[in-house]
Design brief:
The chain is mainly alpha-helical and 262 residues long. The chain is built from eleven helices and three strands; from the N terminus they run αβααββαααααααα. 67% of the residues lie in helices and 4% in strands.
């Protein structure tokens, strides 16, 4: 039996402007939404973990019986999985699990399912290597293009991270760290780079969730975040880039021994 992970699916907007249901109708809608999420997570995690390997056939009748759900809900879940590249409907065969090369590697749901799988270290390594290629450039561009308001906010976030890190408030530090990196990516002025903030968020949250982050942030890392913020504030692109390189490279070093063991 595939077990569900604690993920949230993105809601969709069908253009209906009618007010949301209330009372008993709201309870039914919420229950259906939760069930959809549970089944989607169960199958998505099963595929990403290898429990449902490539070429496996997902039989609608069997899924209805296994999960006790309607044919309509089964079809909706399979439609979402197909949109993520995890499965494909084939005539006279059914819905078939696709190999990893077909998956939407940048989708946050797929990333979370992979982080919940035995291959989480490989996923973290790949994401961190991508950060190393993108975030230093984003910091350089932010130093050149950020607005005054963005520069001030980045400095404020770095200072708040320092305070949270020094007082051992790990959740507050994580939230600030995610926002700091999001701001730097957005301030690059490149909308494609800015869209990568979700990947950075998955790396940072995944490291904490799976015990791959020190309880207290390294003092040098706190200083490097301050250095990046100061460089962006004064418009020093090379210094901002160098500081961000140190931050991401340290992340690689901290997890290197775990990757070598896999």
């Amino acid at each position: 039996m595939v077990h569900a992970t604690e993920l949230q699916t993105a809601s969709t907007d069908d253009g209906d402007s009618s007010p949301p249901p209330s009372g008993p109708l709201a309870a039914v809608a919420a229950s259906a939404s939760r069930r959809h999420t549970q089944i989607l997570d169960a199958l998505g995690a099963g595929i990403c973990s290898g429990e449902l390997p490539p070429s496996s056939v997902l039989n609608s009748d069997e899924l209805e019986a296994q999960f006790g759900i309607s044919r309509t809900l089964v079809r909706e879940v399979l439609r979402v999985l197909a949109s993520l590249g995890l499965v494909e409907a084939r005539r006279r065969v059914g819905t078939v699990v696709l190999p990893e090369e077909s998956w939407d590697a940048f989708n946050p749901q797929v990333i979370r399912w992979k982080l919940a799988s035995p291959a989480r270290l490989t996923q973290l390594r790949e994401l961190t290597e991508l950060r190393n290629a993108v975030e230093p450039l984003a910091a350089l561009l932010a130093a050149e293009r950020a607005s005054e308001a963005e520069r001030e906010e980045i400095v404020r976030l770095a200072a708040s991270m320092w305070a949270a890190g020094k007082t051992g408030r790990q959740q507050a530090f994580l939230d600030l760290d995610v926002t700091f990196h999001h701001m730097v990516l957005a301030a690059s002025g490149n909308r494609m780079i800015g869209k990568l903030h979700l990947l950075t968020q998955e790396v940072l949250e995944g490291r904490v969730q799976y015990g791959l982050m020190p309880q207290l942030p390294d003092h040098a890392a706190l200083e490097w975040h301050m250095d990046v913020a100061a460089a962006i504030q004064r418009g020093d692109g090379p210094a901002a880039r160098a500081g961000m390189e140190k931050i991401v490279e340290q992340s690689l070093v901290e997890m290197a021994h775990m990757w070598e063991a896999t």
